[in-house]
Design goal:
The complex is a heterodimer of chains A (about 600) and B (about 240). Helix content of chain A is about 60%, strand content about 0%. Chain A has 15 helices and two strands. Chain A has a two-stranded antiparallel ribbon. Chain B folds into two domains: about 1-30, no CATH class; about 35-235, Cytochrome c oxidase, subunit III, four-helix bundle (Four Helix Bundle (Hemerythrin (Met), subunit A)), CATH 1.20.120.80. Classes of the chains: A mainly alpha (about 600), B mainly alpha (about 240). At the A-B interface, helix 6, helix 7 and helix 8 of A face helix 2 and helix 6 of B.
Chain lengths: ~600, ~240
C-alpha cells in the first residue's frame, strides 16, 4: 500500500498560550485550562481501500455500521412480513411451514435486538457522534475501531449464512432456551444454531473492541472545557449503554460458549436427563435454568443498551427543535446512570414462570418497579422541555413526540408485566409481544428515524424532503399503533405467542379479524419505510444543499470546520467549550442559540446561566 | 506513575473535590494513558466473563445429581511413589505468581529506561508463562489418560470434566495469548522500539512507549489473579 503516515502541521501540540488566545484580548472569565494531552496522531488513508473500506475514521466506520445494521434490519422486516402473512392469513402462503415460522420468529427477534438496534445505536450513532460531540479528532484507538466494524461484519455474514445451510437457521425462539434449542426436532438444530452461537460470540468480541473505544473517548479524550456535565445527553446515553454492554455481553458470550460445547462435544452444562421416544439421551445432570439466568443477565441490560441511547438522542432532538434548554439536565444524567445501574438487578422478571421461589420473584418485581421512577422522571422532563417551548413541528419533532407517546404506552404495560401476579397469566401471550415491541421496538426506532432526519444534513450536506418525511412519520406512527394496540387485547383474551396457527381454538372467533387487520397494518408500516429509502436516494441526487448548522444547534458536531466534517473533525484547532449544549432562547442574546464554543465575554449582557 | 501535575487544575479535598476532579474537563483519570485506561476497562469486562464461568461452575456443581469427584485424589501427582495431592498445581501456581513478579520488575526497569533489564525480565515472564502452559498441557493429558473427558469421567459427575476443561482451557488461552504478546514485546524492547520517542507500530502507526509494558503487565497480573480464583474453586473446594 502506498499510504504513508502524514502529520498535518496544524495537528501538532499547541502551546497553552496559543490555545487560550492572546493574553491581551481575552478576559479572565474566558479562561479554560490548557490542553493536558498532545494532539492525537491520525492515520490518513489515501487509497480507496484505506479510505472507504478499512477506514480508521470513526465517521466512516459509523456509516459502515449504520448501513450494515440497516441491511439486517430490512431482513428482519421481511421476516416479520412473512410471520404476519402466516398469522393473518393462515395457509395463504403455502411455503410457510411451522418450521419456517419458528425460524422467522427467532431470526426476526435476534436480528432486530442485537444486530439491528444495538449495532445501529452504539456502532452507528456512537461512532459518528461521540468524537464530534465531545470535541475529539477521532476515536482514541482508530485501528481497533476499524477491526470492531469488520468483526461485526463477519458476525452478520455468518448469521446470514445460516439461512442457507442444511436445515436452515435456528428456530428455537430468540431466547435460545435449552434443552430444545440443540435437540433434534427443533428447526435448525444442526448448523443453524451453531452459526447463530458463533455469530453472537464474534459480535461480542467485535463490540468489546468498539465499546472500549467509546468509553475511553468519552472519559479521556474530551476537548478543553468539555466537563462531564457539559456533554450532550446523546453522549451520556450512548456512554452508559456502552458500560452496560461491556458488563452484560460477557454473560452472553459465556452462555454461547457453553451451549456450543453442549452442542458440539456433548457436554451437559444446560442439559438435564432427557427421555426421547422412550430412550434416554446421552445428556444428563445439567441445568436449563442456569442458561436462563445467564441469558437474561445479558438480556435485560440489553433492553437498556437499546433504550438509553434513544433517551439521550431524543433529549437533544427535543431541546433543539423546541428551542428550549433541556429541563433538569442533571436529573436526566442521573436518571440515565440510575436506570443503567438498576438494569443489572431485574433480570429474573423474565423468568417468573420458570418455577422460581416466589420471594425471588417478589424481589425482582420490586426492583423492576423501582426502574419506573427514573424513567418517569425522564418522561416528565421531556414534556416540561416542550412546555412553553418554541416548538417547530417538523419531521424530527414529530418523531420525538411519537417516541414519547409510544414509550409511555409501552412503559405502562411494563408495569403490568413487572408484577408477578399479573405477569403469570399474561406470560407468553400477545400482551408481552405488544409490550416489548412498543417499548423497545417502535420507540427506539422512532428515535432512530428522528435522528436520521436530524443528522442527515451533517453527514451528507443535504436536507431530507420534509413532505415525504411527514408521510413517512404518519404512516409509521398510525400503522404501528394499529399493529400493537389490538395485540394487547389479543393478549388479554389469552392468545399465546409463538403459535404457528390457532386452528380451532376458542380464540378463533374474535381473534381472526383482528389478526387480519394487524397483518394488513404490518404490511403497510413495512412498506412505509421505503418512503425513507426513496427520500434518501432522491435527496442524495437532487436534494437542496443544507446550510451550515441548519437546525441552529449548539453542540459541537455542527460547529466543525466543514460540513460534512473531514477526517480530524475540527480543522486546525480543536474547539474550546464554555457551556452546555442547551443554551436556547436565552433572554438578551442576539440569536436564539448560543453555541458551546461561545466564550462568556461575548454574552455578558444576556441572562445566560453558568453551566 | 508518579503524580503528574496537571496545568491549571488543583485537587480540592473532600467529596466536592472528588466530584470536581471526576467531572472536570478533558480527562477523568488525570495523566492516565489511553491504552492503560482501556486495559483496565477491558479487564473489568473480562472479570465478568470469568465470574460468569465460575458462577456457572458453582451452580453446575451444586445442582448435579451425581457426586462430585474428590479433587485431592483426582489432581494428585506421584512423587517418588507417593501420591501427593495438588503437587503439580502448587508448582504451576508458583511459576505463574513468580512470572507476575518478573513482570512487575520489567515495568519498573522500563520506566527507568533500562532497555536490557526490561527486555530480559519480559522474556523471563514469557518463559514462566510458557512453563505454566506446558505444565497445564501435562495435567490435561494426564487426566485424559485417566479417562476424564468433557462429557464423562470415571470419578463422578460428568460436569466435573466439562467445567474443568472449559474454564482451565479458557484461562489457558488467556495465558497463551499473553505469552505470545510477551515474546513480541520482549523483541520490541530489545529492538529499541520504545527508545528515542518511540517507533511507529506495525498496523496502527501509533508511537511506542514503555507504558505498553505496563499495559501488558496489567493483563498478565489479571491472568494470574484469575488463576488464583480458579485454583481455589477447582482444587481447594
Amino acid at each position: 500500500m502506498s499510504d504513508e503516515y502524514e502529520n498535518k502541521s496544524g495537528y501538532q501540540a499547541q502551546s497553552s498560550e496559543a490555545l487560550t488566545g492572546s493574553a491581551g484580548s481575552t478576559p479572565d472569565m474566558d479562561y479554560v485550562r490548557p490542553a493536558e494531552l498532545p494532539e492525537q496522531d491520525l492515520y490518513h488513508g489515501h487509497t480507496f481501500l484505506t479510505k472507504w473500506v478499512f477506514c480508521q475514521d470513526a465517521k466512516v466506520i459509523g456509516v459502515q455500521y449504520f448501513l450494515t445494521a440497516v441491511f439486517t434490519g430490512i431482513v428482519g422486516l421481511i421476516l416479520s412480513w412473512l410471520m404476519r402473512l402466516q398469522l393473518g392469513f393462515p395457509g395463504l402462503a403455502g411455503f410457510i411451514t411451522a418450521e419456517h415460522y419458528y425460524q422467522f420468529v427467532t431470526m426476526h427477534g435476534m436480528i432486530m435486538v442485537v444486530y439491528f438496534l444495538t449495532a445501529l445505536f452504539l456502532g452507528g450513532f456512537g461512532n459518528y457522534l461521540i468524537p464530534l460531540m465531545v470535541g475529539a479528532r477521532d476515536m482514541v484507538f482508530p485501528y481497533v475501531n476499524m477491526l470492531s466494524f469488520w468483526m461485526f461484519f463477519v458476525a452478520v455474514a455468518i448469521l446470514m449464512a445460516s439461512f442457507f445451510v442444511p436445515g436452515g437457521p435456528t428456530g428455537a425462539g430468540w431466547t435460545l432456551y435449552p434443552p430444545q434449542t440443540i435437540l433434534e426436532g427443533t428447526p435448525g438444530s444442526g448448523m443453524g444454531i451453531l452459526l447463530m452461537l458463533i455469530s453472537l460470540a464474534l459480535f461480542v468480541i467485535g463490540f468489546t473492541m468498539g465499546g472500549l473505544n467509546y468509553m475511553i473517548t468519552v472519559l479521556q479524550a474530551r476537548t478543553r472545557g468539555m466537563t462531564l456535565m457539559r456533554m450532550p445527553l446523546t453522549v451520556w446515553g450512548i456512554f452508559t449503554a456502552t458500560v452496560l454492554a461491556m458488563l452484560a455481553f460477557p454473560a452472553l458470550l459465556v452462555s454461547a460458549i457453553m451451549m456450543t460445547l453442549d452442542k458440539v462435544i456433548g457436554t451437559s452444562f444446560f442439559m438435564p436427563t432427557i427421555l426421547k421416544a422412550g430412550e434416554v439421551l446421552e445428556y444428563g445432570g445439567g441445568s436449563p435454568i442456569l442458561f436462563q439466568h445467564l441469558f437474561w443477565f445479558f438480556g435485560h441490560p440489553e433492553v437498556y443498551i437499546v433504550a438509553l441511547p434513544a433517551f439521550g438522542i431524543v433529549s437533544d432532538l427535543i431541546s433543539v427543535h423546541a428551542r428550549k434548554n433541556i429541563f433538569g439536565y442533571r436529573m436526566m444524567v442521573w436518571a440515565i446512570v440510575g436506570i443503567g445501574a438498576l438494569s443489572f438487578f431485574v433480570w429474573a422478571h423474565h423468568m417468573y414462570v420458570s418455577g422460581m421461589n416466589p420471594w425471588f420473584g417478589f424481589f425482582f418485581a420490586t426492583t423492576t418497579l423501582i426502574i419506573a421512577v427514573p424513567t418517569a422522571m425522564k418522561v416528565y422532563n421531556w414534556i416540561l422541555t416542550l412546555w412553553r417551548g418554541n416548538i417547530r413541528i417538523n419531521t424530527v419533532m414529530l418523531w420525538c413526540l411519537g417516541f414519547i407517546v409510544t414509550f409511555v404506552n409501552g412503559g405502562i404495560t411494563g408495569i403490568f408485566l413487572g408484577n408477578v401476579s399479573v405477569d403469570v397469566p399474561l406470560s407468553d401471550t400477545y400482551f408481552v409481544v405488544a409490550h416489548f415491541h412498543m417499548v423497545m421496538g417502535i420507540a427506539p426506532v422512532m428515535v432512530i428515524m428522528g435522528a436520521v432526519y436530524h443528522w442527515f444534513p451533517l453527514i451528507t450536506g443535504r436536507l431530507l424532503n420534509e413532505t415525504l418525511g411527514k408521510w413517512h412519520f404518519w404512516a409509521t406512527f398510525l400503522g404501528a399503533y394499529s399493529i400493537y394496540f389490538p395485540m394487547h387485547y389479543l393478549g388479554f383474551i389469552g392468545v399465546p405467542r409463538r403459535y404457528y396457527e390457532m386452528y380451532d381454538s376458542p380464540y378463533m372467533t374474535s381473534a381472526v379479524g383482528m389478526n387480519e387487520f394487524i397483518s394488513l397494518a404490518a404490511f403497510l408500516v413495512g412498506a412505509a419505510q421505503f418512503i425513507l429509502i426513496f427520500n434518501i436516494i432522491k435527496t442524495l441526487k437532487t436534494g437542496k444543499p443544507a446550510p451550515k448548522n441548519p437546525w441552529k444547534a449548539n453542540s459541537l458536531e455542527w460547529h466543525t470546520s466543514t460540513q460534512p466534517p473531514e477526517h480530524g473533525n475540527f480543522g486546525e484547532r480543536l474547539p474550546v467549550v464554555h457551556r452546555w449544549p442547551y443554551d436556547f432562547s436565552v433572554p438578551g442574546a442576539k440569536d436564539d442559540f448560543i453555541p458551546q464554543t461561545t466564550p462568556p465575554s461575548e454574552v455578558v449582557h444576556t441572562k445566560v446561566e453558568k453551566t | 506513575m508518579s503524580d503528574p501535575k496537571i496545568d491549571g487544575f488543583e485537587l480540592k479535598p473532600g467529596f466536592r473535590g472528588m466530584a470536581s476532579d471526576t467531572g472536570s474537563d478533558q480527562t477523568m483519570f488525570k495523566g492516565v494513558h489511553w491504552g492503560k485506561a482501556m486495559m483496565w476497562i477491558f479487564l473489568l469486562s473480562d472479570t465478568f466473563v470469568f465470574s460468569c464461568f465460575l458462577i456457572a461452575y458453582m451452580k453446575g456443581r451444586g445442582s448435579t445429581p451425581v457426586e462430585w469427584p474428590n479433587p485431592s485424589e483426582v489432581f494428585a501427582l506421584e512423587a517418588f511413589g507417593v501420591p501427593v495431592p495438588l503437587l503439580l498445581i502448587a508448582l504451576m501456581t508458583f511459576v505463574l505468581i513468580t512470572s507476575s513478579g518478573t513482570m512487575a520488575l520489567a515495568v519498573k526497569y522500563g520506566y527507568e529506561k533500562n532497555r536490557k533489564m526490561c527486555g530480559w525480565l519480559v522474556l523471563a515472564t514469557a518463559v514462566g508463562g510458557l512453563t505454566f502452559v506446558g505444565m497445564q498441557a501435562y495435567e490435561w493429558s494426564k487426566l485424559i489418560h485417566e479417562g476424564v473427558r468433557p462429557w464423562e469421567n470415571p470419578f463422578g459427575a460428568a460436569q466435573f470434566g466439562s467445567f474443568f476443561f472449559m474454564i482451565t482451557g479458557f484461562h489457558g488461552t488467556h495465558v497463551s495469548i499473553g505469552v505470545i504478546f510477551l515474546f513480541i514485546y520482549a523483541y520490541k524492547v530489545f529492538a529499541g522500539h520504545y527508545e528515542n520517542g518511540g517507533k511507529r507500530g506495525w498496523f496502527t502507526t501509533m508511537k511506542g512507549d514503555y507504558v505498553e509494558i505496563e499495559i501488558l503487565g496489567l493483563y498478565w497480573h489479571f491472568v494470574d489473579l484469575v488463576w488464583v480464583f480458579i485454583f481455589a474453586f477447582f482444587y481447594l473446594w
